[in-house]
Amino acid sequence: EGGKVDRDDFYLQVANHLNAEPENVRLVLHGVFAALRAQLTEQEAGRIEGQLPRWLEGTWAAAKRGLDRPS
After folding, report:
1. What's the N-to-C CA distance of the chain in angstroms?
2. Widest pairwise Cα distance in the chain
3. What is the pLDDT of residues 54-71, one digit of tens each?
């Protein structure tokens, strides 16, 4: 299944996969991104960031800084 997914569909897919509430998805992604970034070099993280849709880049960048943790 190729093609682009919009933000709402992506969050819903993650929520369904994790059997989680859709309103908690940003918090989950923030935690996953923070844990993943901690294991990567800056170069690797930059390559990943370059592949993310624009609407997800902010969550990726915030996870690096430990900022904007959704409540």
Report:
1. 32
2. 33
3. 999 888 988 887 655 555
